[in-house]
Prior knowledge:
Layout: H1 2-10, H2 19-30, H3 41-51
Amino acid sequence: MHERLKQAAAAIDPGMSAQPFAGALVELVQEPAGTGGFVVLHRWAEILERHFPPQLPAPDHTTE
C-alpha cells in the first residue's frame, strides 16, 4: 500500500497545489516504520515544515 501511495504521489505534477499534501502524506505514512508505529511530535513538525515552509515577512515590510 505504501508503494502505491508513493507512486501516486510521484505522478502528481510538481506545480499542482496538491503536491505538498501528497509529499507530506507519503513521508508521514513512511515514518512509523522506523519508530514502532508512531510519529513523534517533533517529526510531524519537521515533515510539515519541509512541505509547507513558513511564510516569513520581508525584512523591509512595515505595518504602517
